[in-house]
Design a protein that fits this description.
The chain is built from 24 helices and ten strands. It is an alpha+beta fold. The chain starts with a helix and ends in a 6-residue tail after the last helix.
Length: about 625
């Protein structure tokens, strides 16, 4: 072993040690390792920052942005809507939700797919009384396995494609992983149909800051614009669109419109007043008609966006109608006793023209039904309001109006719109990659630019959707892991591994390689596992006189199959808090599945990627 090899091994050993210690964040450890590598001379200074321009970093960041756009679009919820009312028992809910998550993770980043499906699962669990713990871990597992089917489904596949390109000159293509991945998916889904019973019952999700705000239900005023989905719907059909979670408190006819009086003959001309009582469920909504809606903020957003309604407070900023969406913000605040709004209406206060704020919704304690138009609603101390205005002036305006802002929460109300555009853009990007017209990084970068150009999401939302610690981790670890390869350390490690498996059948050597990747991933992070073990596996195959491709596939599948701990993969971490899982719960479901994936994956890899050299 040379001095440079010893330094490279020492650097990687120290990095892994800090990862295992867990005292510092992964990205901070990776940055420290990069700096140390440059200082001790195993990483050339002119190559230290090549990871920032690596295609892997671009693809991972772009995939997260696209996933967020798909989640905001509500397209998946729309597709799931005909199915969700039929999911009444756990035995049906688990395979359907896990299968849907698995399919979605094949076309977008698996973490993003899980984030898209989790609200659907939580809503079903709340409605049917199903323990969240019975649904979320199977969905996280399905997301991880579904991600191995395509190039962009999981980071190990993306990184392994780059490793293969460096070693052989040809990267793995979009669907090269599919034959093996689909087989593993089938086995996993069959296991999850019964495996969910291994999870303990009675787990309760940890309380979050969101739960601290027991605000209750909001009331808002919405209007049916031309071309809206709600136009022509009955009130009952509109409620069904909101799955019964949103109530229609009153109907607000257009100014001057006459409507039959409910308790007798004749008509009544309506100018500003709302209907005196609950609306007739059979009434069909007309273009221009207004509604008073009441429900939780998230449920209201889903209904308003799904029905294509327009909020009374929406519209361009009065003093600057060309204001970009990036400059606007929706803030939640409490009207204090000293506020000039107390006892007055937004119209009387000229809230929008004078202060540049639009009142979107109001939440009031008690059982009082708010049926006045938003502009004519007299506010009280203690009312919680949703205000929309310029982000730059919002703090000053809240101070002037003595409105106490609540801790910032992601309030989509007044900003969400249902659209199929993100799915169409994603499909176009994947088609171009599959046809070989564009490389993955170029196609996904172009998809992000298209989403921004089409105003599907704002640039601020795009930045917020990127998991920057993961991006920094990848960018820093690429040159760190390269130090072992460039100093000849991978050849040395492969030699030791070769001596351990010499004389064994090639299929056993392949299984050992995959087992090592599965064992290391929970402690090292799957991206780091691929970066370190990929070159070692390829060198091992070369020394055994076998093709490197099946060994690279084995490492990719093993690194993506982290079912044993909540820390090795983001999908596992994402569901730990909401479901109240403990560390050992992951092993109960994950250990049998890890054995199944090993027994299934190795023969499939050897069949579709023959061990004999080309």
């Amino acid at each position: 072993m040379t001095l440079d090899q010893g330094l490279a091994f020492g650097l990687m050993g120290a990095t892994i040690g800090f990862f295992l210690w867990g005292r510092f964040a992964y990205d901070a450890v990776a940055l420290g390792a990069l700096l140390a590598g440059v200082l001790i001379g195993v990483i050339p200074a002119d190559k230290a920052f090549e990871g920032l321009s690596d295609d892997v970093v671009v693809i991972v960041a772009a995939a997260l942005i696209i996933s967020q756009a798909v989640a905001k679009s509500g397209a998946v919820e729309t597709l799931m809507r005909p199915v969700t009312p039929r999911l009444r028992t756990v035995a049906v809910q688990v395979p359907v939700l896990a299968g849907a998550t698995m399919l979605l993770s094949m076309v977008t980043k698996n973490v993003g797919a899980l984030a898209i499906m989790m609200p659907v699962a939580l809503q079903i669990a709340r409605r049917t009384g199903t323990p969240q713990a019975a649904l979320l871990m199977p969905m996280a597992t399905a997301a991880m396995v579904g991600g191995v089917v395509t190039l962009v489904g999981t980071a190990p596949n993306i990184i392994m494609s780059r490793v293969r390109e460096e070693l052989t000159g040809t990267p793995f293509r979009m669907f090269d992983y599919a034959p093996v991945g689909l087989g593993v998916c089938v086995v996993t889904l069959l296991y999850l149909m019964v495996g969910w019973r291994l999870l303990p019952g009675g787990r309760k999700g940890a309380s979050s800051m969101e739960a601290a705000f027991t605000i209750g239900q909001y009331t808002l005023e919405a209007r049916v614009p031309t071309g809206a989905t709600a136009a022509g719907m009955t009130v009952v059909e509109l409620k069904a669109l909101g799955e019964g979670e949103v109530q229609v408190s009153a109907l607000l006819p257009r100014r001057g419109e006459e409507r039959p009086v409910a308790d007798g003959g004749g008509v009544a001309a309506v100018v500003e007043e709302a209907a005196a009582g609950p609306p007739d469920g059979g009434h069909r909504l007309a273009v221009g008609e207004g509604l008073m809606l009441r429900g939780e903020a998230a449920e209201l957003e889903r209904l308003v966006a799904g029905a294509g309604l327009v909020l009374a407070g929406e519209g361009p900023v009065v003093d600057n109608p060309d204001t970009d969406e990036d400059d606007l913000r929706v803030v939640e605040g409490v009207v204090t006793g000293e506020s000039p709004l107390v006892g007055r209406t937004p119209a009387a206060m000229t809230l929008r023209t004078r202060h540049g704020l639009s009142l979107l919704a109001v939440s009031r304690r008690g059982r009082e039904q708010l049926r006045d138009r938003i502009a004519q609603m007299r506010l009280r101390a203690g009312d919680v309001v949703l205000l929309r205005g310029l982000a730059a002036t919002m703090p000053d305006k809240l101070g002037e109006l003595r409105i106490l802002p609540l801790a910032e929460r992601a309030m989509a109300l007044g900003r969400g719109r249902r659209s199929w555009i993100p799915l169409a853009v994603l499909a176009a990007a994947m088609l171009l990659v599959a046809m070989g017209a564009l490389k993955v990084a170029t196609a996904f970068f172009g998809a992000v630019v298209a989403l921004l150009a089409l105003k599907v999401m704002t640039t601020r939302e795009a930045y917020e959707s990127v998991d920057w610690p993961v991006v920094v981790l990848l960018a820093a670890l690429i040159p760190v892991s390269g130090a072992i390869q460039h100093t000849g350390g991978t050849d040395l490690l492969a030699g030791w591994l070769t001596s351990a498996v010499v004389g064994l059948p090639g299929l056993v050597s392949l299984g050992v390689t995959m087992l090592l990747a599965m064992a290391v991933t929970p402690f090292l992070n799957n991206a780091a596992t691929v970066l370190v073990m990929g070159p070692i596996a390829a060198t091992l195959a070369k020394q055994l006189g076998l093709s490197p491709d099946p060994f690279l596939m084995a490492v990719a599948l093993g690194a993506a199959s982290d079912f044993l701990t909540p820390i090795g993969h983001q999908c596992n971490t994402l569901v730990m808090g909401p479901a109240g899982y403990r560390f050992g719960d992951y092993t109960r479901l994950g250990l049998p599945l890890s054995i199944l994936v090993l027994l299934t994956g190795v023969p499939l890899i050897a069949y579709f990627w023959p061990l004999a050299p080309h």
